[in-house]
Amino acid sequence: MKFRRSERLIDMTHYLLERPKELVSLTFFSEKYESAKSSISEDLAIIKDTFEKQGIGSLQTIPGASGGVKYIPRTNKEDAKKFINELCRLIADSDRLLPGGYLYLTDLLGNPQIVSKVGKLLASSFADTDIDVIMTVATKGISIAHATAAYLNVPVVIVRRDSKVTEGSTVSINYVSGSSKRIQTMVLSKRSLNEGAKVLIVDDFMKAGGTVKGMVNLLDEFNASLAGIAVLLESEEAEERLVDDYVSLVKLMDVDVKEKKIKVIEGNYFTNK
Amino acid sequence: MKFRRSERLIDMTHYLLERPKELVSLTFFSEKYESAKSSISEDLAIIKDTFEKQGIGSLQTIPGASGGVKYIPRTNKEDAKKFINELCRLIADSDRLLPGGYLYLTDLLGNPQIVSKVGKLLASSFADTDIDVIMTVATKGISIAHATAAYLNVPVVIVRRDSKVTEGSTVSINYVSGSSKRIQTMVLSKRSLNEGAKVLIVDDFMKAGGTVKGMVNLLDEFNASLAGIAVLLESEEAEERLVDDYVSLVKLMDVDVKEKKIKVIEGNYFTNK
Q: Phosphoribosyltransferase domain: from which residue to which, for each copy (chains A, B) (predicted)?
């Protein structure tokens, strides 16, 4: 069956959105829709225009016989600002205050719309970085790590506090938690990370950065390299930051338990580029 | 600025795909694109046709003043068969065998393309069920729970083995693990689940079903109700299944450690409907 342009545009949009950063050849589309490559090229030009105009992302065209097209997720500045402001508003809600000045963020990390937008923003920050895999630590960072991974189209590996029989052999390291100064253990399945892999570390919350630093040290054990660090929320409180090059969406400035006030501002998302 | 039909089709496709099961009014699209409602209706008819023809899902139209359109993710039978066969092939790989006859599945559960397809299949199974929230248990089920949640557009709550200070007050229960018969604890943050919520339980692996049964018991503590159970992999091995109504994609028939053979077949995905 022949495809009309309108059908092609809808199906190609879906196809590309499902495969960020994957090179799709013109030949593939041309065969899928039984249409001339020149028509496919015209379709892609319209999709590219619309994606850019609407802040969906960009289409990168690679010319030549082995060429094709790639969807690169990007968030435009206006949408990013709006969403980060919304996050600030949500996180500053005094109902989040827990005994000890901790913040309850579980609802945000479980909300698929929020998680997906956080993932798209973090992925946008690293859209032009060469990344093979995303690393996070169980449990709370997993949702945003996976959302970021979906937009970068790379796998996720999860560092754990203890080893499980279903992980096979593991590598474990001890590290010093930045804020509590306690010695803790982290464990990663041996076969989950390849030698030489370029790793983006993603986590929900960073205070002094001890846990993130632990993950960076773990990379050495695997001869893997650090490609970047991205967190949803960083805390200003930290006396001494163990990590300095990272992207954060929101920054926690102050938690006043007595007055029940949480002060948050935009993170370094816009300034770190 | 005015939008041409081709641009509208691309942007509407993106907009709808990002918001499964959400009612979007014709007025919203009409204002967004400064186009007559009659044109928007025509656009939606083309999108609906293409979504159905291409196995992307369906568009449900709700007529009337408060009406609009909803994208319902569905996987057609042919695509589902193909993907489940692929899963069987991947899981039957003898390299997955770990000491004790356990299977290494971490790579599959960390692969964004596989995780997303699993999520779409499980969501398709429950596309017409009333679901408020998805529940899973840390850690391995989290990725597919979130992928399913993204397609059903509902939040995820994560049951843990131990309570964390960042979860606030928790409810904990003891349960008997089905296969090891050991008494274990599971914990859920009190404020993460509302009274009366209809809950879909999602997990990566079910043997006797002790963990899933534990989650079902936990629902009682919250006066929540069970809307369904969905697992990626079930095991035939179980002497006595503690749970009987569930959907599985793949069924593990036998693990022969000596011969290094794993036997898997299609789960009850097609027969359970």
A: 107-254
pLDDT of residue A163: 82
**DSSP H or E run through B202:** strand B198-206
Give the sign of the dihedral formed by CA B129, CA B135, CA B136, CA B142.
Answer: positive
Q: Could you give the CA distance from residue A31 to residue A29 in angstroms, rounded to a whole number?
A: 5
pLDDT tens string A9-46: 999 999 999 999 999 999 999 999 999 999 999 999 99
Q: What is the pLDDT of residue A238?
A: 63
A105–chain B Cβ distance below 8 A for any pair: yes
Question: In the prediction, which pLDDT does B85 show?
Answer: 98
Question: Do residues A87 and A269 lie in contact, with contact meaning Cβ atoms separated by under 8 Å?
Answer: no
Instruction: Tell me if residue A198 falls in helix, strand or coil.
Output: strand
Q: Which residue segments constitute the domains of chain B, with CATH numbers given?
A: 5-73 (1.10.10.10), 77-266 (3.40.50.2020)
A189 and B113: CB-CB below 8 Å? no
User: DSSP 3-state assignment of A170?
Assistant: strand
Residues B6, A185: Cα–Cα separation, whole Å: 54
Q: How far apart are CA B6 and CA B184, in angstroms?
A: 56
Q: Which stretches in chain A have pLDDT values below 50?
A: none
Look at residue B15 in the predicted model and tell me its pLDDT: 98
Question: Taking Cα atoms as reference points, which of A208, A201, A198, A196 lies closest to residue A243?
Answer: A208
Strand-pair partners of B134 = B156, B200
Instruction: Output the six-digit token pair for B18.
Output: 């990002």
- Check: pTM over 0.95? Answer yes or no: yes
Encoding tokens for residue A3?
A: 């495809």
pLDDT 10s digits, B201-221: 999 999 999 999 999 999 999
Higher pLDDT, residue B63 or A9: A9
B-facing residues of A in 165-184 (CB < 8 A) are: 165-168
Number of Cβ pairs < 8 A linking chain A and chain B: 159
Q: Write the residue in B54, B112, B154 that is nearest to A150 by C-beta.
A: B112
Q: Which of A53, A98, A139 sits opposite B168 (nearest CB)?
A: A98
Looking only at the bridges linking them, the beta strands covering B57-62 and B68-73 are: antiparallel
Beta bridge partners of A133: A199
Contact A223, A195 (CB under 8 A): yes
Peptide bond into B148 cis (omega under 30): no
Indicate the residue of B10, B51, B111 with minimum beta-carbon distance to A46. B10
Strands lying side by side in the sheet with B261-266? B156-159, B133-137, B198-206, B225-235, B247-256, B261-266
Would an 8 Å CB–CB cutoff place A129 in contact with chain B? no
For residue B262, what are its two tokens?
Answer: 């794993």
CB contact under 8 A, A6 and B5: yes
State ipTM. 0.96
